[in-house]
What we know:
Layout: H1 38-61, H2 73-92, H3 94-101, H4 105-126, H5 130-144, H6 157-176, H7 180-200, H8 206-220, E1 226-228, E2 234-235, E3 259-268, E4 274-275, E5 278-279, H9 280-288, E6 319-324, H10 328-341, E7 346-354, E8 356-357, E9 373-375, E10 400-401, H11 403-406, E11 414-419, E12 437-441, H12 448-451, H13 459-465, H14 467-474, E13 479-481, H15 482-505, H16 511-516, H17 520-538, E14 550-552, H18 564-576
Parallel strand pairs: 1-13, 3-6, 3-7, 7-11, 11-12
Antiparallel strand pairs: 1-2, 4-5, 8-9, 9-10, 12-14
Helix pairs in contact: 1-2, 1-3, 2-4, 4-5, 4-6, 5-6, 6-7, 7-8, 9-13, 13-14, 13-17, 15-17, 15-18, 17-18
Amino acid sequence: ELRGVSPPxxxxxxxxxxxxxxxxxxxxxxxxxDDIPLGERKTVTDFCYLLDKSKQxxxxxRDLPQYGHKQWQSYFGRTFDVYTKLWxxxxxxxxxxxxxxxxxxxxIGEVASKIGQLYYHYYLRTSETSYLNxxxxxxxxxxxxxxYFQVNKENRPELVVKKLRYYARYIVVCLLxxxxxxxxxxxxxxxEEIEDYTQRFNTEDQLEWNLVLQxxxxxxxxxxxxxxxxxxxxxxxxxxxxxGSVPPLEQGMVVGQLVLADSLIIxxxxxxxxxxxxxxxxxxxxxxxxxxxxxxxxxxxxxxxxESSEKPAKRENPHKYLLYxxxxxxxxxxxxxxxKELPANSVLLVYLSATGVFPCGHSxxxxxxxxxxxLTNTNRDVVNGETVQKRNxxxxxxxxxxxxxxxxxxxxxxxxxxxSSNSTAYKNFTNLFGxxxxxxxxxxxYPKGVQDQSQRGSLFTLFLYSPLLAFSSVCGLNSVRAGxxxxxxxxxxxxxxxxxxxxxxxxxxxxAFLQFFGDEFLRLLLIRFVFCxxxxxxxxxxxxxxxxxxxxxxxxxxxxxxxxxxxxxVLELAAxxxxxxxxxxxxxxTY
Length: 591
């Protein structure tokens, strides 16, 4: 019925429900067990064995360590093998299982849903976007074949909850694949299902499910501008790395050979739009660190069955950890695991999107723990009566990632992005070990109109994810025609090439920037950062120096963010979008 299943896949995301409690083999009808042919009885027994084994392995996934690249793979492989056998077995023996076991369609749906979850978790573990397509194909089949249709006729609320959870998971995968039209359809269906569920069963979780609906609705509406075709229909485009989207290196250009191998994406902003355990900033940044997914089925010799030996040889995307509201100890543990497993000639990227924590007082000596940092989560609302002001002004904020906390990890190449109201705390870095180190820092204040939009995601991260979307947003454009959008994107590709040359030809630029420039993901982030800085410096609303991005080490301004050529490009783009009046002729920077 569905394609074969096979990669070793894994992890059980927090908040996921218990796997299905499918009834064990029950012979139907009035016949006794002796009346059933031996072969059919064996079929039912084998199915029950596979079902129990799959549940047991699936439950065990949640106990695997969430970090480290190796510990989980063999267990995951075993889980996937059993689900492959179970799926094929129910396909081959459907008739016997229908009549002798009483196999229900929702039970088949439950197995398909587990396989979808396995593919999704394999994506989370490996960052290989192609597995999202595999998860999607199973989730999609469940809906098209109405596997959960009969659930509403049974008087069992726990079965309806399975269906609702399936919808929530399907929506997450569709969001990650930018299938926004389908997301809207699924949200409508989920809304109807929730209404039916809460009317039939007087449950206590109604508010929780309504919150899920509100969250996903806000998430879908988070983009500040839309692209419209000639029929006024929204055009969805991907912002993942695509062929031709990164300016190539010039012949003979000397840049580092470092490769981005691992990244931590951390989200802890108060009041930012989120769904599942992804804030909108995390959602955007993770896509900026991924290539466009390919369909695995087209890469393999046997349709849709991916054997371990056939896995794409080169892992296209850097590995990622997604940490939503981590505590300091969680953040430090994942950082240490990434640092430990970082291969030679590789870079660790740390992206911090979080509320700023500011120092209470000033000390005579200002060290790496005297500037505050970004907020980490506390497990309890009050830690040892911590709501009472600290006993001593000299004590540092405990639930905070200070710049000094990152110092030990600068023993290897480190690329840091901080999007926070206290991002400038991370300007106070010292490169103790001489390894490549760059910090890209967001503005700390925004003009009021921009600040009011912050719930829908940070403008700085938006520039790193989709510069044209961010540029449109800061110019107050709610929609752009598809033809104009394409011309503007084409123009920006030329601008990116010029920025790349500015960076590599500058005589005064810090070598760290060039050492990271060989990696395509980091090259694009650096180029977008420079474009963002140049655009905001010319925008009439952005008057204070705190409203411009900064970096450590500093970029040579005249060669990059205040280059006459780049300013000319920004104004050309503004004219193209008919917003030229919002920009100065040249940077009016005030200090």
